[in-house]
């Protein structure tokens, strides 16, 4: 007697799971958190809960719209890679309809409009730029044209920090600018580590990621150089207002990432590459947590 309702409920859950999968929410949540960190570290009074919530949701929804566009645009290519061939547009779980473009545009417009109305125009502009850089500059223009795709496309993550800083101090916020630089420098070694681990898949898909173009050995050296530059840049905010808690967290995370990058140079294979990839996540998490603790505790 309960077969139809249970089946219907399961189909709704499956549909919700597929739609949320389009939005790349794990990436979106990380980007949203960087925006909140940008707010916290800016040396000015924090806005109220309502403004904070609007900014956080605006960044999350704008990021989700860009993630959906990324999967929509690459649906015809994603079947070539094991890590993407189970996406909903590839399997047919969701129809590859132009109506999705209307939904994505609506999400982006509403998120930017909310940030404009309830935060300020500069923060809204950064929210818009973050989504456009990932959805258009990286996905459409750069990804399949140049091995420097992720270097330039990495600016997408930097705009969230700037949006957070602009919500607090629109025209005088050196620390968010420095953290935006850190995010910009973090993206290449982070993604190149993953690309080394999945080099053959990117080659089969025709994506000119750096390891595909120059080989795993040279790409591993680029990861190490990038990680050293990232670590040095991550220490700069300590000279502009952040204190010892931040410095220790940034240094510890950076040294750990460098150590994993050195192992990757010595053995440019999948296992060390994945350790380097996860080390990048540890490094960024330590840096962001330390930045917040420094502002709260000191």
Helix and strand arrangement:
Blueprint: H1 3-22, H2 25-41, H3 49-73, H4 88-91, H5 99-118, H6 121-142, H7 149-153, H8 155-168, H9 174-197, H10 199-205, H11 210-214, H12 216-234, H13 244-266, H14 270-297
Textual characterization of the structure:
By secondary structure, the chain is mainly α. It has a single domain (3-297), classed as Farnesyl Diphosphate Synthase (Orthogonal Bundle), CATH 1.10.600. Helices cover 78% and strands 0% of the residues. It has 14 helices and no strands. It has helices at 3-22, 25-41, 49-73, 88-91, 99-118, 121-142, 149-153, 155-168, 174-197, 199-205, 210-214, 216-234, 244-266, 270-297. Helix 2 crosses helix 8 (155-168) and helix 8 packs antiparallel against helix 9. The protein starts with a helix and ends with a helix. The relative contact order is 0.11. The model has no long low-confidence stretch (mean pLDDT 90).
Globally, the shape reads globular
Report the sheet with the most strands, covering strand number, pairing sense and barrel closure: none
Fill in the CATH topology.
Answer: Farnesyl Diphosphate Synthase
Low-confidence stretches: none
CATH architecture: Orthogonal Bundle
Task: Note the total helix count.
Answer: 14
How many individual domains?
A: 1
Radius of gyration: 20 Å
Helix content: over 70%
Succession of helices and strands: HHHHHHHHHHHHHH
Distance between the termini: 62 Å
Instruction: Please report which band the strand proportion falls in: under 5%, 5-15%, 15-25%, 25-35%, 35-45% or over 45%.
Output: under 5%
């Amino acid at each position: 007697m309960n077969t139809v309702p249970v089946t219907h409920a399961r189909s709704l859950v499956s549909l919700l799971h597929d739609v949320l999968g389009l939005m790349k929410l794990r990436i979106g949540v990380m980007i949203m958190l960087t925006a909140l960190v940008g707010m916290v570290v800016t040396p000015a009074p924090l806005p109220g809960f309502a403004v904070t919530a609007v900014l956080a949701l605006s960044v999350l929804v704008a990021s989700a719209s860009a993630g959906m566009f990324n999967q929509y645009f690459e649906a015809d290519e994603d079947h070539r890679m094991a890590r993407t061939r189970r996406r909903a547009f590839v399997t047919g779980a969701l129809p590859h309809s132009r109506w999705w473009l209307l939904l994505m545009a609506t999400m982006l417009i509403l998120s930017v409009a909310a940030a404009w109305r309830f935060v300020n125009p500069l923060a809204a502009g950064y929210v818009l730029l973050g989504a456009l850089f990932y959805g258009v500059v990286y996905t459409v223009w750069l990804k399949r044209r140049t091995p420097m795709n992720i270097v330039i496309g990495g600016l997408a993550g930097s705009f969230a920090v700037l949006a957070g800083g602009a919500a607090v101090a629109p025209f005088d916020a050196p620390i968010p600018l420095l953290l935006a630089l850190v995010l910009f420098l973090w993206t290449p070694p982070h993604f190149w580590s993953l690309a080394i681990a999945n080099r053959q898949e990117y080659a089969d898909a025709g994506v000119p990621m750096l390891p595909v173009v120059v080989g795993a050995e040279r790409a591993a050296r680029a990861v190490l150089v990038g990680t050293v530059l990232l670590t040095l840049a991550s220490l700069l905010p300590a000279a502009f207002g952040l204190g010892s808690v931040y410095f220790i967290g940034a240094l510890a995370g950076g040294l750990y990432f460098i150590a994993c990058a050195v192992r990757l140079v010595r053995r440019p294979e999948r296992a060390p590459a994945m350790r380097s990839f996860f080390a990048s996540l540890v490094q960024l998490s330590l840096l962001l947590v330390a930045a917040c603790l420094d502002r709260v505790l000191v």
